[in-house]
């Protein structure tokens, strides 16, 4: 059976998802597309061979011809649209963040528990990235012993114009919160946020430095620098008892020229994580067909938002803030 998809939102990310699904994912077809910009919806629908364009996202979600829904509309719409998918009992892949607040995430979790089945996957795509997967496999192999520290770096070329001072945490660092929890296989329990330099002159893209307490006494450090200018660059090094594991970005060619050797950086995250997006989409479709959920769950989406909220509190208070999770419901075990 081919899974017939509805895609809500075809801006930069949604259009990329649509193209990836249409050209590189097996077992799915795009039935309908909705975007607030109807012309854009039509253009992307034509490009990817979608059967139709919807005039309302809720109609698309309710369409009996649509088996599952991918949500890539603005962050503020994620909660209501994901809820509509749960109520319609349709599997949904929602871009991060799952919702704007941890309370809203909990409402989605309640709805999913009432449905009694996992329907929600959150687009924390790094879990599917071959570099992070290789790091996890090396850790699991055991010869490096236990993990002690995870150093993470997240640099963008420039913060988008709509970024405010907290977005480095709520929009960017959430990826690290999810991947650190996934890598260390446990919850983050406290966070301290530091801002280097003179705070009075800082822009929303200025660096922030985060220190987190992880499971079993581990620590994670995260630098987010949204205005790093030189390129999109995500780094990670896991320090273990008997060695370290370094993340390698995919570099397929080194150029030797004018007395130097080098590789270029992408402008944004899409080329860096293109394999992750493709594998995430394929994993999602396979999970719908097999009934075995994969990727980040609604619970994972909730914890990333919960850590971000504590981070924002720490940014305001200048103190270390505790992160208190409630016990994970059995549905997510
Ligand atoms: C953006 O929303 C993403 O999800 C990217 O992966 C991340 O690198 C960027 O910092 C975010 O703004």
From TrEMBL:
The lineage of its organism: Bacteria, Pseudomonadati, Pseudomonadota, Alphaproteobacteria, Hyphomicrobiales. InterPro entries: Gfo-Idh-MocA_inositol_DH, Gfo/Idh/MocA-like_OxRdtase_N, GFO_IDH_MocA-like_dom, NAD(P)-bd_dom_sf. Residues 4-124 form the Gfo/Idh/MocA-like oxidoreductase N-terminal domain. It comes from Labrys neptuniae. It comes from the Bacteria. PANTHER family: INOSITOL 2-DEHYDROGENASE, PTHR43593. SUPFAM superfamilies: Glyceraldehyde-3-phosphate dehydrogenase-like, C-terminal domain, NAD(P)-binding Rossmann-fold domains. This is Gfo/Idh/MocA family oxidoreductase. Residues 132-246 form the GFO/IDH/MocA-like oxidoreductase domain. Pfam families: GFO_IDH_MocA, GFO_IDH_MocA_C3. Coiled coil: none annotated.
């Amino acid at each position: 059976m081919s899974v017939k998809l509805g895609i809500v939102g075809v801006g930069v990310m949604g259009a990329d998802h649509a193209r990836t699904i249409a050209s590189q994912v097996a077992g799915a077809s795009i039935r309908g597309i909705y975007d607030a910009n109807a012309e854009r919806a039509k253009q992307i629908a034509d490009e990817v061979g979608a059967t139709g364009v919807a005039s309302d996202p809720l109609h698309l979600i309710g369409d009996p011809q649509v088996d599952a829904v991918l949500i890539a509309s603005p962050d503020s719409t994620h909660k209501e649209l994901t809820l509509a998918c749960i109520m319609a009992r349709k599997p949904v892949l929602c871009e991060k963040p799952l919702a704007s607040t941890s309370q809203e995430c909990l409402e989605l979790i309640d709805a999913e528990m009432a449905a009694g089945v996992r329907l929600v996957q959150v687009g924390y795509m790094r879990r599917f990235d071959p570099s992070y997967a290789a790091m996890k496999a090396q850790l699991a192999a055991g010869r490096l012993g236990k993990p002690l520290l995870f150093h993470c770096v997240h640099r963008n070329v420039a913060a988008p114009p709509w970024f405010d001072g907290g977005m480095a945490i709520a929009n960017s660092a959430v990826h690290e919160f999810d991947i650190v929890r996934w890598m260390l296989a446990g919850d983050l329990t406290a966070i301290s946020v530091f801002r280097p330099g003179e705070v009075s002159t800082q822009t929303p893209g200025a660096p922030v430095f985060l220190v987190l307490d992880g499971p079993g006494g581990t620590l994670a450090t995260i630098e987010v620098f949204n205005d790093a200018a030189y390129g999109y660059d995500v780094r990670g090094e896991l320090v273990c008892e008997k060695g370290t594991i370094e993340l390698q970005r995919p570099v397929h060619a080194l150029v030797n020229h004018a007395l130097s050797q080098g590789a270029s950086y992408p402008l944004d995250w899409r080329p860096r994580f293109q394999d992750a997006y493709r594998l995430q989409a394929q994993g999602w479709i396979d999970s719908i067909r097999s009934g075995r959920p994969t990727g980040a769950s609604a619970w994972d989406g909730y914890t990333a938002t919960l850590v971000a909220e504590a981070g924002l509190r720490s940014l305001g208070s200048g103190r270390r803030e505790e992160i208190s999770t409630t016990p994970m419901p059995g549905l997510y075990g």
